[in-house]
Design goal:
The complex is a heterodimer. By secondary structure, chain A is an all-alpha fold. Chain A is built from 12 helices and no strands. The radius of gyration of chain A is 22 Å and the shape is globular. Chain B contains 17 helices and no strands. The N terminus and C terminus of chain B are likely disordered. The chains are: A mainly alpha, B mainly alpha. Chain A: It is found in: Cell membrane.
Chain lengths: 263, 471
Amino acid sequence: MNLLRAWLAGLPAYLWSGWGAIASLCLLLAAWEAVSLAYGPLVMPDPRAAFATLWGLIDSGAAWPELAATARRALTGYALSVVAGSVLGLVAGLSMTASMMARPLVTVLMGTPPIAWLVLAMLWFGASDGTPVFTVFVASFPVIFIGALQGTRTLDNQLHGMAAAFRLPRRMMLTDVYLPHVVSYLFPSWIAALGTAWKVVVMAELLATQDGVGAALAVSRSHLDTAATMAWIAAVVGLLLAVEYLVLEPIKREVERWREQGA
Amino acid sequence: MSMGDRTMNAGRGAVTGKGAGNAQSGWSVRLAARPLFMCGFRPFFLLTALHAVLVLLAWGGFLGFGLALPAVAGGPFVWHAHELMFGFGLAAVAGFVLTAVPEFTATPAFAPRVVLRLVLLWLAARAAFWLSGGLAAVAESWLGGEEGQAVARWIGHLPAALLEIGFACALLAAVAPRLWRDPERRHLGFQWGLAAMAMAVAGFHLDVLRGEYPMRWVLVGLGVMMTLVVVAMSRISMRVMNDALDAARARRLPAHTLRRDEEAELELPSYRARPPRRNLAIAAIAVHTVAEYLLPGSPITGWLGLGAAAAVFNLLNDWHVGRALFTRWAFLLYAVYWLLALGYLLLGLARLGAPLAPSAGTHLLAIGAMGLSILAVLCIAGRTHAGYPLDERPRVGAAAVSIVLAALLRAAAGLPDMPASALQLLATLAWITAFALAAWRLGVLFVAARVDGGAGCEEYHAPRAAEAVPP
């Protein structure tokens, strides 16, 4: 509740600070416009054409089902990896042996390109939702796992000792000593994993499904419709930016505030 | 500052201008001794306000009644834009830097002789530019022919070019060494701004001499002016905003106790004009200015205009410190940034194909951001350095509101389906009202000797309660 109130109170100032981000995004749009002017609309349509196409897709209602399908798959895979990655990572972090053993496995998982998992998933799950969900899960799991592992491994032993010396109740031990520290590692890894999930799901859809943004991208590619391609890309990136900066970043700041104050 | 410091400063000032004084005739010595030349801002701020009225009276006469303007290369629109940018704007910049740079770098004030020379140069540049068309016509009637036309243009315009470039360079030469020698070099922004301004002036005149339409350099000048506004405002705003915050704190604390004071410090954040956001805004404006010069009217410039608007809005993050913002002087400066951002927003939208004239955006920048910030500087720096406290009377508000009105009316004239000429005339009237008020109410202070016992550019110090009561 406190978290919510702090979030609401800081919201106007936080939203206003978004102007800086908008300023740099405008520079990006100017660069995009320059490329489109230099190479022509077939290679790169100008931003206004892409946004007009996107607006047309949204206005006609064609965009929502695709975005919903993509979001459903991405979030399912992501939720699975958040639960599995956090729990397993925390548990592995508790034991030195387990974390030593887990590290090479995670490296293997991270090192395997998502496209390889996608091929396997297509063999196992066919054209169902299972393919993108599984690929998303496998791609974002190691990111969260490592975050959780680091969080538990780096717990301050002295702090632990001090808390024990003061006979801190177990509940306070958990909420005031362990949780803030672990969350400050977990949360950034969740955000990073969300980015991965969102990117991987589009790739998986492009090759494996009949609907979703990835499939729409495949269609626009086959029609050589670069404006629609850029429109879909803008939609995907825009949604990710919105979720990250409007929802996750404020929470992250709130969660990490104790660190700045300590420093 | 003690009496001893003052004499020392006067002594150093005399050394700076040594040698030149011997050749000076009696009238200039007598003129320089007048209170008007006591400090750099006095003549230049007075000329700024007078010139603003004069140029817009002539412009209003041209727009409304078809009265003739001084014939110059490029036509009436070039005359109007040039006079307001490089005449009005540069005079205000001169007044500002001649007063602020000695203060910022803790160097002695500029000697009245130096100020007088710069003023004469500025006046001569005005006269030469206004007469340039007539001079060219006379030369052409003598020379005749195709060849003669180009030569006549040179003859007509060269004096204006030399005087005006000379003024911009002399100003730079006067302040640059002090900015550079300052141990921390915290105010180099003014030096780069003045150098860029001198470049814009030179570019303008080279274009005229080559027979090209020189308006693009006025737009470069406008961009440079906007960065100078951002740089100068950051210095002024620190003072104004923190004064407002102090006042707000004092209101909250009838009795001063340390504990409560600490509490209040925590409740009311202090204001700091932080460099990162300012540098982003300056960079965005600079990139837009360069793009506008290289690719006039391109949609690329449009996105960069939106970027500049966003970067200026981003700058306002520093300003959102609560109710202290809504006090007169703080809000006046705050409004400048809004006009600056909205100007770039309109300019960007126009370039991206929105149905409005780009001139709506440029005039929000020129009238709104430049005009209002210059009025603010006249009212703040002009009064305090002339030895008076800030003017809390309604006329400052009236002048500021009429400038904002002028900016909005002129911008509205660039929107589709608007009675453009009526709006332009109204905007002209509002502008004239504001600067006539400033010229009158501040001018009388600038030409008169100080009454607070201070000398030169010294700032007004509020007499303490104990001192104010006569023994």
